């Protein structure tokens, strides 16, 4: 299974796309654990008080897992996983 990482998360992991040892039937949480095991420096950025920090968005197929079964959602073949940190900025109105 592949994670797409954005902003500083990609910098910490050293790549924007990271393949982990997770497969259909595993959960999103299993895939996240595999990612954090492979890239332990991400753990401090993603996990807060034992769970995913409120400001980190975990997406499965472009939808926040908070809207579905959370990290207990079962992975299916072809699922796309992504981690987004908070993003700000942009051009000011002129």
What features would you highlight for this structure?
alpha+beta; Ubiquitin-like (UB roll); Sulfur_Carrier/Prot_Modifier; five-stranded mixed beta sheet; 94 residues; ThiS/MoaD-like; Mopterin_synth/thiamin_S_b; two-stranded antiparallel ribbon; Molybdopterin synthase sulfur carrier subunit
Helix content: 10-25%
Distance between the termini: 43 Å
Q: State the CATH class.
A: Alpha Beta
Query: What fraction of the residues are assigned to beta strands by DSSP?
Result: 15-25%
Describe this structure in words.
This protein has 94 residues and is α+β, with helices and mostly antiparallel strands. The chain has one domain: Beta-grasp domain (Ubiquitin-like (UB roll), Roll), CATH 3.10.20.30. The protein is built from three helices and seven strands, in the order E-H-E-H-H-E-E-E-E-E. The strands form two sheets. It has a five-stranded mixed beta sheet. Strands 3-4 form a two-stranded antiparallel sheet. The radius of gyration is 13 Å and the shape is globular. The termini are far apart. 21% of the residues are buried. The model has no long low-confidence stretch (mean pLDDT 92). It holds the Pfam family ThiS. This is Molybdopterin synthase sulfur carrier subunit. InterPro entries: Beta-grasp_dom_sf, MoaD_arc-typ, Mopterin_synth/thiamin_S_b, SAMP1_3, Sulfur_Carrier/Prot_Modifier, ThiS/MoaD-like.
């Amino acid at each position: 299974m592949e994670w797409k990482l954005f902003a500083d998360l990609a910098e910490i992991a050293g790549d924007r796309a990271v393949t982990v040892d997770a497969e259909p039937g595993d959960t999103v949480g299993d895939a996240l654990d595999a990612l954090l095991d492979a890239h332990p420096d991400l753990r401090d950025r993603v996990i807060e008080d034992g769970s995913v920090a409120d400001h980190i968005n975990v997406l499965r197929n472009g939808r926040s897992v908070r809207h579905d079964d959370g990290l207990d959602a079962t992975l299916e073949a072809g699922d796309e996983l992504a981690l987004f940190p908070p993003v700000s900025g942009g051009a000011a109105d002129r």
